[in-house]
Amino acid sequence: MIDAGVNLTSSQFHVDADDVVARAREAGITSMMVIGCDEQDSIEALALAKRYQYASCAGIHPHNAKDASADLESNLRQLASENEVVAIGECGLDYNRDFSPRPQQREIFARQLALANELNLPVYLHERDAHEDMLAILKEYQPKGVLHCFTGTRAQAENYLDLGLYLGVTGWVCDERRSQDLNDALNVISLDRVLIETDAPYLLPRTIRPKPKSRRCEPMHLAYVVAHLSAHYGVSESEVSKTTTQNFRTLFNL
Ligand SMILES: [Zn+2]
Questions:
Q1: How is residue 52 annotated by DSSP?
Q2: Cα separation of 251 and 247, whole Å?
Q3: 95-113 burial by CB neighbour count: b if 16+ within 10 A, else e?
Q4: Cα 197 to ligand 1 centre (Å)
Q5: Residue 54 near residue 32, CB atoms below 8 Å
Q6: Which pLDDT belongs to residue 142?
Q7: pLDDT of residue 176
Q8: How far is the CA of 78 from the centre of ligand 1 (A)?
Q9: What tens digit of pLDDT does each residue of 118-146 get?
Q10: Are 45 and 12 in contact (CB under 8 A)?
Q11: How many beta carbons lie within 10 A of that of residue 82, not counting itself?
Q12: What is the pLDDT of residue 91?
């Protein structure tokens, strides 16, 4: 299994990242995407990717758009010259939290899409409550990429699939209180367009038994996302792992 999205630079992993990685390997996680969320964070994500021989992405999360430097292109270009950096992101639009002004979110996002196209790299995308604007910008740039932690409706899934994107499914899908849209959307998302991710340390799957003492999600919990998809698609867990691993390799050219 490959965990297509881990916030390994989070302070929640500072003390015991080696142990977290060891547990992930024991659980059959052969690789992961270490997410970068701003310029400094992307440098740290790359360092962790080198340390553990994983992949990373370099970019500016919409929350951090307001703090992007004027020369973000040259900073990201330099990071992208490293073998481990296989995508530009996490980038996109977040109108749910609005931590950065929306016009600035759109500008910083578009600049990263232009850069990804220049470098011929896929993008690692984030979208919350911004579907229409996201679609309009994506249609302009037509990137390859994955809409990470997709939680939207069936119609939204179809729009993203029409653009050729992959959709990242996290432990959100295991949350019976808020996963109705996503589980309905899965009916139009074929498994060969799915990446699986934990988004650790966030989104601890609610189906874990016995319930863990810590609320912190770890990559080793990816198995619960696999189990859910296995039941949904009516295929074995190893088939889910195999197909999503192949999807990851295809998208990120590995
Ligand atoms: Zn995100």
A1: H
A2: 6
A3: beeeebeeeebbebbebbb
A4: 11
A5: yes
A6: 98
A7: 85
A8: 23
A9: 999 999 999 999 999 999 999 999 999 99
A10: no
A11: 13
A12: 98
User: Cα(206) to centroid of ligand 1, in Å?
Assistant: 19
Tokens of 211: 């319930």
Alpha-carbon span 138 to 162, nearest angstrom: 11
- Of the candidates 245, 235, 93, the one whose C-alpha atom is nearest the C-alpha of residue 166 is 245
Q: What is the 7 CA–ligand 1 centroid distance (Å)?
A: 9
Sign of CA dihedral 84, 88, 93, 98: positive
Tokens of 219: 């990559």
- Give 148 Cα–ligand 1 centroid separation in angstroms: 6
Centroid of ligand 1 to alpha carbon of 93 (angstroms): 9
Closest CA to 169 of 144, 186, 153, 156: 186
Query: Which residues have beta carbons under 5 A from ligand 1 (an ion)?
Result: 126
CA distances (Å), origin 127, targets 12, 106, 131, 216, 223: 23, 12, 7, 23, 24
Displacement of CA 96 from its chain's centroid (Å): 18
